[in-house]
C-alpha cells in the first residue's frame, strides 16, 4: 500500500507528478551516472529528452555535481550547446529508503554513439559528416573557453548528443567551472568534481592534480585535450580506455593529423586553441561543411552569391549524404524560403529534396512552406511555384487549395505578364480538381472566359485545352452552359489555327457530355465548316471529329429504331479507347510548338469566307445522301440561305446516316417520313394541297411528269426540294418542265440522268422553276455565277 501511495504522489513510470512531461524508454548509453530517456510533453505531445540522476541523500556527490550542471546548462546558451527546457528535483520513498532524483528536460536528442550506428555512413560521406560535427563541437568549446572563460573539463564522445536535424551539441556540464589564472578559487567545481571524469580523458596536469600548472595554462588547454580524445574515439570507433591509446593515429585522417597532434601536446601552453582549429584546418573545408555554413549565414550574402549558390544546390545535394540533406539542409532551406532570405532558384532545390521524402514527411516538412510561399509578392517565387505545381499539387488537400492556395494563384490570371498568365492557366490542370463547385463556377470559369479572348494566341489555345481536361470536374449544369459555347463560338472561330484544332479536340474529348440534339444542331454544323480550313492540321482533326460525332448519331439512331431509348440517351464517346488521349496529345504538340506568335497572322478574311461557304454547304448536304461530299468545295455563295433550326438539322443528319447504311438496312429504314406517298389514295388534305400546287404551273410540257409523282421501288433515287436546288445550279436543262412540289413530297429521277456528268453540261435553256424563283434568286444582278446567269435567261425568255 505504501509503495502504491508513493507512486501516486511521487509519480510512476511516466515521471513525477509535478513534471509536465511523460518519460519513455531509455537510451542504452549516457554520460556518467545520468540516464537518458525519450519523452513527450503532456501538453502537446512534442518530443523531448529527459535526463535523470538519482542519489541516496541530498548531499550525494553525484547530485551536487548534477545541480552544478543544471545551473550551467540553464544559463549558457549557444547553437551548439544542448537547449535547456525544464528541470526539477524530487524526493521519493522506496520502502524505508529516501531517494532524491534530479530531472533535466531538453530538446529531443540522441547519444552520438547511437546516431553513428544508425546512420552507418561510409568513406567520404562519413568523413564529411564527422567534419561537420567536429566543427560544431569545436565552436561550442571555443565559445566556452574564449568567450565565457569557462572550462568544460569533460569533452569526450559521451558528452556529445545529436539533434533531430543531425546537429552535434555539447552537454554534461557537471564539472563546468570558471577559469581565472589569478584566482585560486575560480576552479572550485573542477577541483571538487574532477573525480567524475575518467582518468583516460584527463591531461597530465589534471591527472596529477597540479592545480598550479592548470592555472598557468591557457583556458583552452584542458578542453583541447578532451577534443583530441573525442577525435580518437570518433574515427577509431572504440571507447578510449587509457591515455596511451591516443598515440595510435592510424585511423585519423591525414588532413586532420597535424591538428590532432597539436591538440594532444604534452605542454599545455602549446596545445592548439579550438578557435584556430576551426580557422586553419583544411579538413573542415569540404562540400557539406561549406554548404551548411553558407545556409547558416545566408542573410549576409548578396543576391549574386545567393543566386549562384541555389542554382548549384540541386546537383550538389545529390553528392551529399542523403539523410543529412533531408534532416539538416531541407529544414534550413525551407526556413530561408519562408522568411524571404532565399532566392527563387532555391525552390527548385527544395522540391528536389522533397521528392526524396515519403508522402507523409513531405506533407509535414515541405508543404507548409509551399503554401506560405503562394502568398509571396516575389514574382520569381510565384513563377517557380507554378512551374513545379505538378510535383506537389497532388499532396495538397482540397481545403488548402480552395481556401489558401487558389486565392493567391488566381491573381495571375489578370497579371500583365503573358508568361505568368499562361503558367497560372496551366497550373489549374492540377489545382482545379481540388476546387469546390462554388469556386469553379463563381471564379475560375470567369477568368477562363476572359482568357479565351486573350491577346496571346497560345493562352487562348491552352484555355480551350484546360476546359476540355477539367470538364469532368464540372457539374452537369455548368457543362451544359459552358462547354459548347466555349469550344464552338470561340475556339472554332479563332484566327489562330492551333486554337481551332484545340477546340475540335476538346469537343471530341468531351463528346460523352452532349446529347444527340446538341451534337446535330450545335456541334456538327460548326465542325463541318473546318473541313475546308486553310490549315492542314485543322482539316485533319475536323474530318476525324465529323466521323466521330456521326458515329454517335448513327448509334443513337440505331438504338432509337430498335426501341432502346435508354441506350440511345447514353451513347457517348466514353467507349472509344482513343478518346482520352486526344486532348493530351494536343497539349504536348502545343508545347513543342511553343508560342507561335508568328502564326497569328493567318488571314481573317479567308477564314471568314471559308466559314460562310462551308456553313451553307453543310446545311445543304443534310438531305443529300450520296452526292453531298462532292459539292463541299463548290464556289457558289449561299450566305443568304437560312440555316435550318435544330429539328430540321437533326432529321437531316439522321437521313444522311441511313443513306450511308442503306445497303445494310431494309429499304424502309430511314425513309419512314416518305411512307405516306406510297399509300394508294392520299388523304383529302394532301389531295387538296397537291391540287393547289398543280394549278398555277399546268403546261403541256409538264404532263408526262404526272405519272412519276409516286416513286417506284426499283432503281429509283428519292430527292427532296434541296436536291432540286442543287440541280437548278449545276444540272443541264431538263427534258421536261419542273413542277412545284409539296415540302413532304418527292419526285423520281430516271436512271439515265447522270447528275455528275451534268455538272459539265451546257447552260440550261428551260424556263425558271417556281421553287428557285420563290427563293428570291431572281432579284440578283447579273454576275459570273452560274445561278444568277440562269435567272437572267429565264427572265428574258418570259413565261
Automatic annotation (TrEMBL):
HEAT repeats: 523-561
InterPro entries documented for this protein: ARM-like, ARM-type_fold, CIK-Related_Protein, HEAT_type_2, Kinase-like_dom_sf, Prot_kinase_dom
PROSITE patterns: HEAT_REPEAT, PROTEIN_KINASE_DOM
Pfam families registered for this protein in UniProt: Pkinase (PF00069)
Biased composition (Basic and acidic residues): 661-671
Domain (Protein kinase): residue spans on this chain: 3-284
A Gene Ontology molecular function term of the record: ATP binding
UniProt biased composition (Polar residues): 621-638
Stretch list, region Disordered: 609-738, 761-799
Ranges of compositional bias, category Low complexity: 609-620, 761-785
PANTHER family assigned to the protein according to its UniProt record, in alphabetical order: N-TERMINAL KINASE-LIKE PROTEIN, SCY1-RELATED S/T PROTEIN KINASE-LIKE
Name used for this protein in its record: Protein kinase domain-containing protein
Organism ancestry: Eukaryota, Viridiplantae, Streptophyta, Embryophyta, Tracheophyta
